Each structure stands twice: as structure tokens, then as C-alpha cells.
Amino acid sequence: MKLRPYDSKDCEEIIKLFQETVHTVNARDYEKVQLNVWATGREELVKWDNSLKENVTIVADENGIIVGFGDMDRQGYLDHLYVHKDHQRKGVAAHILEALENEAVFQDVPGFTTFSSITAKPFFEKKGYKVLYKNTVIREGVELINYFMKKEKKNR
């Protein structure tokens, strides 16, 4: 597995990975109606591409196939961290997260934040993130639960 910067040509494959991951991996913690409003299948390529280009985005590539990706904005907010359903529990997310947190652009941020799914919460807790509060998002009239989490940077 190789980590590399995002390129716009990755966007379609990333959106597909996002949709498949949500509908398979997150299915153990969310109902079908929730998954359908989370990953609708109507994700806009240009909107996603612009967001991924604005943020620091890292792609995990294995033999030319994207197996994971993550992006963080300039304030240290982790927006996405998704790993292909067939590459779960192989360290892909940990490598992406570590690479993002170690990016030079984040040298002066005091810590990192994210809204974590129920499914990803144990992963983030193992990586030093603490739950600040439980959050409810309403999408198309459907409630989704997630957790706002923060990790303080060491040596500050």
C-alpha cells in the first residue's frame, strides 16, 4: 500500500468507495434508511472534487486501486476517513490518519477534531480522540447519530 496526495482523477473512485463503505461497513450500526440519506448515490463529483482539493487529502493506493482516503481542512478538522470494505482492519485508516496528522500544514493547530460515526468511534478512541458530545444530524427527515471527537496534540 502506498499513500499519495489526492488527484482529481481519483474522485469518481473515491465517491464509489465512500458509497460502498457506508452501505456495507456502517450497516452494522445504522438502518437502511439512514444509510440511504448518508450515502445517497447522488454525490456531486465537482463538489466532492473541490472539497478534496481544498483540504489536505491523502489516498491509500494498492496496485493502482484506491483502498482508502482521508481529508482534513486547514484547522485540523478531519472531514472524511473511509476504507474500502475489503480492506478493513488492515491498518489503512491508521496510516492515513497518521499521515494527515503529521502533515506540516498542521504543525500549529492545537489538536484535531472530527464527527465520527458510531462504527468508527472505537477506532478514533484508540487513536487518542475523546468524545466531546453525541450529535444528531437530520438528513431528509432521518436522524443520524455521530460523535464530535477531539484529539489534543502532544508537546504543546
Write the layout of secondary structure elements.
Elements: E1 2-5, H1 11-24, H2 32-38, H3 45-54, E2 56-62, E3 65-72, E4 77-83, H4 92-101, E5 111-117, H5 121-126, E6 130-139, E7 142-152
Parallel strand pairs: 4-5
Antiparallel strand pairs: 1-2, 2-3, 3-4, 5-7, 6-7
Outline of the structure:
With 156 residues, the protein is of the alpha+beta class.
Oligomer: single chain
Structural class by sheet pairing and helices:
alpha+beta
Count of DSSP helices? 5
CATH class of the domain at 2-110 equals Alpha Beta
- Ends distance: 32 Å
How much of the sequence lies in strands comes to 25-35%
Major beta sheet, strand line-up: 1-2-3-4-5-7-6
In percent, how helical is the residue content?
25-40%
Number of strands: 7
